[in-house]
């Protein structure tokens, strides 16, 4: 996977998007395999009037995989529809990444199978795959959030970029109490020191017994939060962060009071 050359400034983040898109692409084949080559046909044993609740996990899950795979792939190849980083980010506004789907589909499918005492292996796999795709959607959301903090996005949207300017101060002619100070590069800048709590949170996540996919997702959320603190958008990002990590709040519970104190 090669990132388009006009996005090399954000190559690492965009490569992550492409990797997620590739994952969705592979899921398309697996959705079709589960439906056509496993035991999905046994949903015929579920009454017709509620069968659609089980069928939906396939229909919605496969549609999700197709849309995300094709959209992310197009973003890297279709310059006409995606001429800028901003146009790529805006493509996802109000869509699947931001919750525009029925998140209750897996639960309803599971409840329907349980109600009629049907334990269909392919449906169980679909439910699991649907939820994994939801985690991938969240990873895309976090990545887009970080991309909005990049200099490239800011340049495209006329947002001021804070630059650091080095200054040189020469001290000479120290005689008694008199000191002559000459300065060049008259601007004085301060160095940003990231609160240590963010690195400690990352360490705790890596040391947890979560699966690699969940560790990566939580780590991305912490990095997004750290970036927002530096750029002055911490308040809004904090709300997203708390929502995104709610399923694994026990891992981060020792740090909740600390990050709340940064508000």
Largest sheet: 2 strands, antiparallel
Count of distinct strands: 2
In total, the number of domains comes to: 2
The overall pLDDT average reads: 87
Protein name: AbiTii domain-containing protein
Organism: Marinomonas sargassi
Task: Please provide a brief summary of the model.
This protein has about 260 residues and is mainly alpha-helical.
What does this structure look like?
- This is AbiTii domain-containing protein.
- It comes from Marinomonas sargassi.
- The chain has 263 residues and is mostly helical.
- The chain folds into 2 domains: 5-156, no CATH class; 196-260.
- Helices cover 60% and strands 6% of the residues.
- The chain has 11 helices and 2 strands, in the order ααααααββααααα.
- The chain has helices at 11-36, 48-77, 85-91, 105-115, 121-147, 151-156, 196-207, 212-231, 234-244, 249-252, 256-260, and strands at residues 168-175, 178-184.
- Strands 1-2 form a two-stranded antiparallel sheet.
- Helix 1 (11-36) packs antiparallel against helix 5, helix 4 (105-115) packs antiparallel against helix 5 and helix 7 runs antiparallel to helix 8.
- The model is unreliable at 164-190 (pLDDT under 50).
């Amino acid at each position: 996977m090669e990132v388009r050359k006009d996005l090399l400034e954000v190559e690492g983040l965009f490569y992550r998007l492409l990797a997620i898109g590739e994952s969705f692409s592979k899921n398309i084949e697996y959705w079709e395999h589960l439906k056509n080559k496993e035991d999905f046909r046994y949903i015929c044993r579920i009454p017709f009037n509620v069968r659609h609740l089980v069928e939906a996990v396939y229909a919605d899950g496969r549609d999700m995989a197709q849309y995300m795979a094709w959209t992310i792939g197009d973003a890297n190849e279709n310059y006409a529809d995606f001429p800028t980083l901003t146009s790529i980010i805006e493509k996802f506004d109000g869509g699947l990444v931001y919750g525009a789907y029925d998140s209750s589909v897996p639960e309803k499918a599971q409840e329907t199978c349980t109600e009629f005492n049907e334990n269909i292996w392919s449906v169980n796999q679909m439910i699991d795959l649907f939820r994994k795709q939801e985690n991938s959607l969240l990873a895309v959301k976090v990545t887009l959030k970080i991309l909005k903090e990049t200099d490239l996005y800011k340049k495209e949207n006329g947002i001021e970029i804070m630059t650091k300017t080095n200054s040189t101060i020469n001290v000479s002619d120290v005689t008694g109490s008199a000191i002559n100070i000459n300065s060049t590069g008259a601007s004085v800048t301060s160095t940003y020191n990231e609160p240590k709590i963010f690195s400690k949170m990352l360490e705790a996540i890596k040391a947890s017994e979560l699966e690699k996919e969940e560790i990566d997702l939580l780590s991305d959320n912490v990095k997004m939060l750290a970036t927002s603190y530096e750029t002055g958008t911490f308040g809004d990002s904090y709300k997203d962060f708390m929502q995104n990590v709610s399923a694994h709040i026990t891992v981060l519970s020792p740090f909740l009071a600390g990050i709340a104190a940064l508000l």
